[in-house]
């Protein structure tokens, strides 16, 4: 039995790009974007927690196996394919990942359907910054960044980069100044996140809400799950999407 058996599978197409999506739940919309190597059982379990908290969760399947296990072998299989896939940025500076356009249309469509103040968006690791890029669309009212790790922190500039073009960063700044807060979560000593939390504090000020954990770890809601991380995320969604 697959952990996705109780989810409704569909396909979302925008600008000629199509990806499967998995949907479950009722209430305000939240888009949960999986990490490398794909939509693992741990990612799905987190999605189930968001559903149980009273949300309509949509999980786009962007790469890797749907319902597969987290393993070094799975990561090794997926990563080379990502490196040549033009939908995703890996090391480029000051550039918004191309898949953000597709994700924005997914968010806008969900908001049009469900109404309310907007939808939540959460990315993790490789996709950690995607919720920030989605915030360029006004439909995203609750962006969450879990251990954002792209561009890969190779050198000081990339470690500080937040995976946005200057134009998109300016829009994110304006939305934050108008009251749209951004929640970020990471392990404090996680090298993969570089110094981009410091960049976000500089760019967004008090509207960047950072939650940092001690100890060794990376994936705050999956492999190295922290209950406080899950609680803070659900509280953020409640504040931003229910009121």
UniProtKB/TrEMBL annotation:
Keyword Hydrolase annotated: yes
Transmembrane regions: none
Keywords associated with the record: Hydrolase
InterPro entries: AB_hydrolase_fold, Dienelactn_hydro, Dienelactone_hydrolase-like
Pfam families: DLH (PF01738)
Keyword Repeat: no
Record SUPFAM superfamilies: alpha/beta-Hydrolases
Segments forming domain Dienelactone hydrolase: 26-148
Listed GO MF terms: hydrolase activity
Protein name (database record): Dienelactone hydrolase family protein
Organism: Nocardioides donggukensis
Lineage: Bacteria, Bacillati, Actinomycetota, Actinomycetes, Propionibacteriales
């Amino acid at each position: 039995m697959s952990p996705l058996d109780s989810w409704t599978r569909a396909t979302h197409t925008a600008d000629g790009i199509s990806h499967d999506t998995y949907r479950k739940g009722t209430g305000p919309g939240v888009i949960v974007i999986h990490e490398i190597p794909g939509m693992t059982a741990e990612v799905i379990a987190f999605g189930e927690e968001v559903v149980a908290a009273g949300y309509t969760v949509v999980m786009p399947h962007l790469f890797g196996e749907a319902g597969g296990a987290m393993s070094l072998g799975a990561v090794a299989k997926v990563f080379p394919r990502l490196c040549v896939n033009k939908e995703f940025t890996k090391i480029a500076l000051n550039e918004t990942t191309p898949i953000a356009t597709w994700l924005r249309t997914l968010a806008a469509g969900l908001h049009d359907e469900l109404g309310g103040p907007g939808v939540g968006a959460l990315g993790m690791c490789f996709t950690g910054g995607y919720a920030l890029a989605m915030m360029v669309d006004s439909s995203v009212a609750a962006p969450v960044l879990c251990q954002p790790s792209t561009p890969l922190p190779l050198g000081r500039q990339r470690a500080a980069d937040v995976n946005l073009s200057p134009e998109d960063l300016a829009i994110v700044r304006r939305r934050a100044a108008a009251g749209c807060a951004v929640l970020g979560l990471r392990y404090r000593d996680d090298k993969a996140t570089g110094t981009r939390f410091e960049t976000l504090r500089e760019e967004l000020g008090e509207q960047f809400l950072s939650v940092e954990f001690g100890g060794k770890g990376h994936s705050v809601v999956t492999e190295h799950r922290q209950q406080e991380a899950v609680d803070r995320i659900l509280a953020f969604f409640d504040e931003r999407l229910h009121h």
